[in-house]
Amino acid sequence: MTISQLDAEARRELGSLPRTLAEVVGRHLVMAGRLLDEDPELAYRHAAYARRKASRVGAVREAAGVAAYTVGNWQEALSDLRAARRMTGRNNFLAVMADCERGLGRPERALEIARSPEAEHLEAEDRVELRIVASGARRDLGESEAALVELQIPELKERRARPYVARLFYVYADVLQELGRDKEAREYFARASAVDQEESTDADERLAALEGVEIVDIDDGVVWTDAEELTLEDEIGPEAEAEAAPSEKGADPDGGGRPEEDARDTGGGEASAQDRS
């Protein structure tokens, strides 16, 4: 684990520090990035240490802000990301800043960030994430129709399998369902499932619920089956099922059973989404 594992821009910024200090801070930034998903609290401690040692480095303040956001320290995250923005001139964390405002109970300020001139020049992924946050802010204000409008952007017609596209489809479907437009919600949950290769949403489960089926894991596969379907034991009880079992004379010599007739294998998968939308 060395500073060389950081991206080039972060290494350049750390070059303003004495070499030994830069190496120490760099290693903590590497660990913070590596642990962000699996152990956010430990990642936060690594980032906080780096911040104490090099608070005037933009890359350090960015890392500290993202780590604080991940553990729900909204005000600290907002402060660090604002500082990083002043130091670097980068706007790629506007969505995180806006979501911090939501976390602090200030959805109007989140919408101000989303409408800022800087938001118009973001890369596609950052722009989509900011629209998702803006939609969440509208929902915070009880404006579900406006929340849907916030998401009606060109990327809603995207077909490439990218995580931010899957999230856009998913949130759009979620708002549609909130508005009672279940048919359209099914369409967009299906689209989210189709492009969600990283399984960043639970689109499969939401779609299954709308279709009235349930997903059952079987080994490495997934079976969708009727949610209302009852087993023999459910219908007549375990004792009666035992009596209904074939006698030894008429039993299958291989001990095999009859497969479920109504199940169909889809091979889908799911992971829960972690967002504030």
From TrEMBL:
Region spans: Disordered: 227-277
Protein species of origin: Nocardiopsis mwathae
Protein name: Tetratricopeptide (TPR) repeat protein
Gene3D superfamilies for this protein: Tetratricopeptide repeat domain
Composition-biased stretches (Basic and acidic residues): 249-277
Biased composition (Acidic residues): 227-242
